[in-house]
Specification:
294 residues; Rossmann fold; three-stranded parallel sheet; binds NADP nicotinamide-adenine-dinucleotide phosphate
Length: 294
């Protein structure tokens, strides 16, 4: 029987609806959460991401502002601007869209954001708290994946989760979240990377397989066991002359073959992507509530 499709669009809409209620509560206390986004340069994908985030804020009632800078912006100017936003009361969350141009150190940018406004969950303070099992802001994509699993009835507790990829945005933080002794976690986690031997032996043992490599259609039906739950994080552009743009997005999983073996699977697009944005909104509301003690 073909797999159940885990609909990230629908689940993220449910989350956004429940956020609207929290926002109404805050509004009654005359509090409106504010998110500042900073975009340096003209990377087309970054522009799309920032626009999507701002639009999502508008839809639920989070106030957002975007600083757009030319790609030559000196690093010191960006750090000064972050410092200003750290001190601005109406701004509760700050996000700097990565990648930044070469003259700007992403590490310095991450360190510059006040951990209380770090709605991306990248600051070492928040990463440390996550590892310690006392999280404040968890990174949006891993948090979105955890929510997807729980809300689709696939609690990772007691399961063997195999993660393909140890990147700092997805694989690494996700692994540290899923092995915690806490709700939505409590899994046995295996992390695979380019030095992993006999990868298929490991993927075949997964109850939940999460692919976050950036390798189009890497995971095939022969690599998964029947009944597996598959979360596809990969976002890869492949050429497709039949589309208007000449390309289309595919995941790290060969969806058509794997869906015949899996119990449940996320599509690309429409799986993890919308959840990442929903979690950014959720983190912004959380930051506002903490800062305004509401
Ligand atoms: N949907 C979303 O919201 C969202 C958000 C973030 C990222 N993404 C997508 O998720 C994917 C991963 O992103 P990322 O930032 O985590 O990437 P990354 O930092 O480049 O990490 C990729 C990881 O995959 C591993 N890898 C690559 N090829 C492999 C192979 N053949 N076998 C085993 N492991 C392999 C790498 O291993 P080494 O460490 O050994 O190099 C690395 O750990 C990308 O497609 C990205 O676009 C989607």
């Amino acid at each position: 029987m073909p797999a159940e499709i885990i609909d990230g669009k629908m689940i993220s809409s449910e989350i956004k609806e429940s956020l609207k209620e929290k926002l109404e509560d805050l509004k009654r206390k005359e509090i409106v959460p504010g998110l500042a986004a900073i975009l340096v340069g003209d990377n087309p994908a970054s522009q799309v991401y920032v626009n999507m985030k701002v639009k999502a804020c508008d839809k639920v009632g989070i106030r957002s502002e975007v600083d757009r800078y030319p790609k030559e912006l000196p690093e010191s100017d960006l750090l000064n601007r972050i410092e200003e936003l750290n001190g601005k009361e109406s701004i509760h969350g700050i996000l700097v869209q990565f990648p930044t141009p070469a003259q700007i150190s992403e590490e310095k940018v991450i360190l510059a954001v006040d951990p209380k406004k770090d709605v991306d969950g990248f600051h070492p303070f928040n990463v440390g708290m996550m590892l310690a099992g006392k999280p404040t802001f968890l990174p949006c994509t891993p948090l979105g994946i955890q929510e997807l699993l729980m809300r689709s009835g696939n609690d990772p507790s007691g399961k063997h989760v195999v993660i393909l990829g140890r990147g700092s945005l997805v694989g690494r933080p996700l692994a540290s979240m899923l092995f915690q002794k806490s709700k939505g976690a409590n899994a046995t986690v295996t992390i695979c990377h380019t030095a992993t031997r006999n990868l298929t032996n490991l993927t075949l043992q997964a109850d939940i397989l999460i692919a976050a490599m950036g390798k189009a259609k890497f995971v095939t039906a022969a690599m998964v066991k029947p009944g597996v739950v598959v979360i596809d994080v990969g976002t890869n552009r492949i050429e497709d002359p039949s589309t208007k743009s000449g390309y289309r997005l595919v995941g790290d999983v060969d969806f058509d073959s794997v869906k015949e073996v899996a119990k449940a699977i996320t599509p690309v697009p429409g799986g993890v992507g919308p959840m990442t944005i929903a979690m950014l909104l959720s983190n912004t509301v959380k930051a506002c509530k903490i800062q305004s003690e509401a």
